[in-house]
Design brief:
Elements lengths: L5 E2 L10 E6 L2 E6 L10 H12 L7 E6 L18 H19 L5 E5 L2 E3 L1 H8 L2 E5 L3 E3 L2 H4 L7 H9 L1 H9 L4 E2 H7 L4 E3 L4 H13 L3 H16 L2 H16 L2 H11 L10
Parallel strand pairs: 3-4, 4-5, 5-7, 6-8, 7-10
Antiparallel strand pairs: 1-2, 2-3, 8-9
Helix pairs in contact: 1-2, 3-5, 5-6, 9-10
The chain binds 3-methylmercaptopropionate-CoA (MMPA-CoA) (1HE).
Amino acid sequence: MSLDFTPITGAPAELDLLKIWTAGAVAHIRLNRPDKRNAVNDRLVSQLQSAMQQLPSGVRAAVLTGEGAHFCAGLDLSELSERSVAEGILHSRMWHAAMDAIQFGRVPVVAVLHGAVVGGGLEIASSCHIRVAEASAYYGLPEGQRGIFVGGGGSARIPRLVGVATMTDMMLCGRVLDAEDGYRRGVSQYLVADGAGFAKGCELAQRMASNAPLSNFAVMQALPRIADLSQSDGLFVESLMAAIAQGDDAAKERVRAFLDKRAGKVERQ
Ligand code: 1HE
């Protein structure tokens, strides 16, 4: 799947630690600090947040990649200096705001992972909606080794992918998962050969961009919240979201198209 990407213009083009392109309804956002293995300093965190908030209105899905040999080396440790407790909390909250801008933003995001996806890099990946791993990808949480704790939302999001036991193993024992193991345990939803990740990410982004906007909204905003509720409360919220989605003109047209035999069937893949 090759899309004809052109560099974005306007304010997002000024974000110097990212490269951003668009092709129709798909944006490609690339972490662009390869000399530091895309280690995330404060500027990069806030640029990621800005990028998600400033995507042009025609963009309906995004692909996130990392420049160079690794997706992301996590927190820029050179900035982890003499922070006070209060500054540490605010720093973590800054990451939370940026990761929320990805997870609860306007468009679904596919992360394409290769090489090291460690620490804050895994926190960024886990904020995305879908993860495609190339065979070279590996996952670690070296926070334990560095004497710190996850602060970018990892403790809330990573156990929802791999479970508390695996995350505990990664942090207490320094366990590193390779791409295959990560795929089996639920870090990535797709596993592809080296070099094939971007094409797969674009294919998935195009598919997501073609969904009815309210369906994507429900999946991105309602589904993770319902999963956090009690079953009874979750079912109640589900019924509201379902009624809102099916009442939308896009849903009516899509259902009519199927009944008129104008829409595709569900096929085995
Ligand atoms: C960095 C960082 C970084 C590389 N902060 N500068 N993350 C970690 O503990 C991971 C630390 N990094 C590594 O284990 C390795 O760098 C990699 C496996 C990712 C890549 O290895 P390699 O051999 O390709 O590169 P390198 O030679 O280690 O690094 C190249 C340069 O990037 C080098 O700088 P240079 O000036 O000597 O060229 C490294 O110092 C620099 N670099 N990673 C700062 N992380 C919200 S809280 C999240 C908490 C965390 O993320 S903790 C985990 C931090």
